[in-house]
User: Which sequence fits this backbone?
């Protein structure tokens, strides 16, 4: 199965300060381990929400809203798409991630649906 | 199942191959290594539900298994009455097992050694497949049996015999080099592709695809690509599997019937897998040396993947690629595929000439795709009656229920065309 890992790192992903080289190295090491285990299909990090937009749908009406967005706990900072055999496997991998804050959401991707 | 048990099962899936590999390097055989790993798993099942899952579960399992391995080696040596060697052996075991199992390169080499051992040519193909799924995929005997629609005791037997054969042939735990590496690697790639194909085009039963096996093969391929990044054919095989897997959902119709490549709705192809496949193909092509058979097949699959509609397919390039495959690994099946491409590139008559030359080929005598291809070309040439007979013959030759239905439908269509014409 495929799972999407949604990284909600809290307000810190909104700040302009980049992560320390040590933190980056830790993250890279973890990501390498995942790649070597054949788990990672795709990974990406997002720009701060100040550069983001939202489009609100209301019937026929569309409203574009500029960032930054305020609900900082729910802000998505990055994502992974993993190929695993169970949600439990995804959880066991995720627990090994080198983060000390934030909430990471694990969601199974619906399979074999047409686009 | 409790949360702890589910966690342990997941951890086993993640760790078992590395664990067995590390142990096999020290004890020298897969059977003992697997037993030791299983013992560690049993210990985890006893302790973790009460004490909680340790912070580094992989290291815990390896540590536990390591102690048992050292005990075992000590006992073995006692039995052999070579007391003077015990000390030395003991040291070697400690060195080999424990110093730092987390060093990536070492773990990588261990895994590679285990792959080469499980896929050793001394084993029959079916044995290699079962053993690989078991020790590298971490699948249970029941899961393997279910995947291959074989009774559980048969798979259990197959695995036991495979381990015995390896032990009796004194197959060493090693990462081969030089000329031997090429032959041994070919055996590894063959096993992975067999697993993939068993999933991709189920040879028996009423399932057209068993995606779980495809996913398992892809995972093994992706792991191997990181373990042996300089081997072009590894990337070629990964590319081939990624691109073929991208069509998994498109090759089955609403009621489970097969949909052939050119009739597939391309919007349903998985763009992510195509992108990964094309990237793997590029990795293979960037490495030195002439393109191998998997890379060439991947290049052919890529021609289809790049075409936004079936009509845009670059058939002359596919013919050229099949020419290259035929030079490298000539076989009647390759000739048949080439004939299909020639038929598409240069017209059905040209394709039919090539297929007709294969009709007398003994190895294709009961191969259902020969009459299926011939029927297709005859139909395009307006020879509906001959086409119908060929489709019916093809239907009688396949064991796959879904495929038979498809071929029978084609035969019926030809009969209708004949009535209309």
Assistant:
């Amino acid at each position: 199965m495929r799972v999407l890992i949604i990284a909600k790192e809290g307000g810190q992903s909104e700040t302009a300060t980049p992560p320390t080289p040590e933190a980056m190295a830790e993250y890279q090491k973890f990501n390498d381990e995942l790649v070597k285990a054949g788990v990672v299909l795709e990974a990406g990090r997002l720009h701060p929400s100040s550069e983001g937009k939202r489009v609100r749908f209301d019937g026929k009406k569309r409203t574009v809203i500029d960032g930054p967005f305020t609900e900082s706990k729910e802000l998505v900072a990055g994502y992974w798409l993993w190929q695993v055999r169970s949600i439990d496997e995804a959880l066991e991998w995720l627990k090994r991630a080198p983060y000390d804050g934030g909430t990471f959401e694990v969601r199974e991707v619906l399979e074999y649906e047409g686009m | 199942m409790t949360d702890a048990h589910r966690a342990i099962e997941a951890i086993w899936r993640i760790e078992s191959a590395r664990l067995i590999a590390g142990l096999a390097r020290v004890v020298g055989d897969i059977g003992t290594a697997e037993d030791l790993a299983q013992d560690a798993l049993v210990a985890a099942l006893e302790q973790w539900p009460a004490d909680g899952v340790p912070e580094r579960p992989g290291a815990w399992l390896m540590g536990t298994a390591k102690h048992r391995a050292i005990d075992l080696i000590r006992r073995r040596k006692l039995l052999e009455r070579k007391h003077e060697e015990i000390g030395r052996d003991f040291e070697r075991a400690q060195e080999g097992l424990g110093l730092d199992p987390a060093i990536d390169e070492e773990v990588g080499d261990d895994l590679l050694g285990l792959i080469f051992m499980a896929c050793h040519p001394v084993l029959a193909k079916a044995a290699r497949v079962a053993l690989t799924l078991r020790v590298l995929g971490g699948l249970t005997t029941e899961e393997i049996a279910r995947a291959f629609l074989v009774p559980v005791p048969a798979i259990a037997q197959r695995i036991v015999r495979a381990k015995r054969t390896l032990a009796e042939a004194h197959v060493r735990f090693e990462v081969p080099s030089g000329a031997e590496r090429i032959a041994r690697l070919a055996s590894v790639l063959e096993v992975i592709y067999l697993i993939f194909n068993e999933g991709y085009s189920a040879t028996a039963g009423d399932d057209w695809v068993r995606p779980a096996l495809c996913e398992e093969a892809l995972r093994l391929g992706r792991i191997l690509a990181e373990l042996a990044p300089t081997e072009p054919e590894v990337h070629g095989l990964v590319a081939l599997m990624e691109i073929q897997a991208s069509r998994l959902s498109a090759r089955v119709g609403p009621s489970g019937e097969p949909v052939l490549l050119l009739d597939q709705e391309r919007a349903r192809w998985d763009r992510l897998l195509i992108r990964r496949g094309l990237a793997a193909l590029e990795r293979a092509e960037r490495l030195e040396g002439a393109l191998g058979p998997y890379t060439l097949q991947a290049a052919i699959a890529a021609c289809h993947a790049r075409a936004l509609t079936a009509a845009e397919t670059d058939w002359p390039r596919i013919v050229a690629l099949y020419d290259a495959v035929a030079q490298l690994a000539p076989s009647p099946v390759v000739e048949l595929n080439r004939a299909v491409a020639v038929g598409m590139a240069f017209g059905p008559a040209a394709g039919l000439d090539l297929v007709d030359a294969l009709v007398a080929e003994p190895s294709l005598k009961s191969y259902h795709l020969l009459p299926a291809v011939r029927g297709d070309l005859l139909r395009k040439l307006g020879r509906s009656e001959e086409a119908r007979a060929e489709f019916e013959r093809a239907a009688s030759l396949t064991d796959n229920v879904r495929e038979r239905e498809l071929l029978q439908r084609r035969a019926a269509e030809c009969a209708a065309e004949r009535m209309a014409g």
Notes: Chain A touches chain B at residues 32-33, 35-38, 41-42, 81, 83, 85-86, 88-89, 91-93, 111-115 (CB under 8 Å). The domain at 2-108 of chain A is CATH 3.30.70.1060 (Alpha-Beta Plaits). The longest strand of chain A covers residues 2-8. Helices of chain A lie at 21-36, 87-95.
